[in-house]
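Appendix B, record 7
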Amino acid sequence: MKAIYCDVCRNQIPEIIINRTFFPVGHFEICEECRDNLESAVKNTVREKKPFDYAWFDDLKMKVLEQAVDKGHIESPKRR
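Structure tokens (predicted):
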């Protein structure tokens, strides 16, 4: 069996179930926790974007993921 590691946090992903415990995003493979962090990191920016554009959204997610891979974690937004 192949072991898959999250590209962001570099932890092994146990029990690989696509779109449940393992999420392919672009050319990255991320775990559930990192996917949740990614969604919360882009949430406020997406809410303010009018009109919404899927190409812009995909670019934003990839930009956040590329920065996260370099840092080893996804920057969570500061709560107000």
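Remarks on this record: The chain has one domain: 1-80. The chain has a mean pLDDT of 88.
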